[in-house]
Amino acid sequence: MRRLGAILFIIGVGAVSLFLTSNSDHVTIRMHWTYLHSKIQPQTTSAFSSMVSDPQLKGLVYYDASTKEIFLLSRGQWHLVYSKVNSGIWFADPIMAYDPIYKYLVLFGVKDQAVKGRVIQESQTWILSANGWQRIRTAISPPPLFGSSLGCDPNTGQCVLFGGIERVSSDAKSMHPIRLSAETWIWNGSTWKQIHTVHHPSARFIASMTWDAYTHQLILFGGLFSYPMNHYSDTWIWAGKSWHIVSRSHNLMPDQLPEPMTYDPNMKGLVLLNMNKSKMQEWLWDGKAWKLLAPNFASPLLNQSNYALQMQYDNADHYLVLYVRHWTKSGESYRTYVLK
Asked: Fewest 10 Å CB contacts: which of 91, 184, 187, 317?
């Protein structure tokens, strides 16, 4: 009986190792990106889009600011929830995150407003719940920032916004038309508050930020400090009142596109997608360092024009979801993949 138990234990260990094996440099996974055959696909027309997991709606919410459309991915199918007829708002470069305390999606974006014959930019905060869109007007708000990062901490109830670009001059001859931000702003469910810390990430834009449910930390990675190729490859933790740097990766080199990053409970870590010369790489954050995922399959073929790349973990169907806009010789195509 003891011998039979030992044999079963060895078989069980072997089965697990077929799924996930690791060494100091990389992790090998036994999973596949599979094309999701949905009757409809979101057909984004710009980079102004965002995809977020929403436990209340039991699926993934995809928002395209240019078309004002919202799609919901539920049980393997995309559904059009809000059309441009009734969504009513347009934002340049919106960022969204799910607030687990108040149980709604919070959106921060920039909108052009006509004031006395001039067009000025205004930052706005909206929430999306089952009742639709609702604007939250606050006395204090972050400046009109593009390319900021937003993530929510369920332990502290904070939604943290960091960095971005602010257009400070519309004069084409201006030597300094934009300002790069290193500001930290906190959304507490009703208003914004700027937090001043001694240590913080350098000024940057389109950095990746998300909650790591395994280490219970809000993680920020990478970002650009000029376009197109001057980027950071450092990793920071938001500790509730201050920032702490935990890693400077010399192997993981971001490109000029935002790096989709999300927590995957199956792998017990953050998964980050990195484009490397038209080849997609998957990286895993184990709480201390980034490790290259070495799948036993080829990733979807992408290229540098796939600026609609989005990735999130679907908590309802329990797999990673990748949405990408493909450029082909025959035109554009829109595809959704799941990692199983």
From this structure: 317
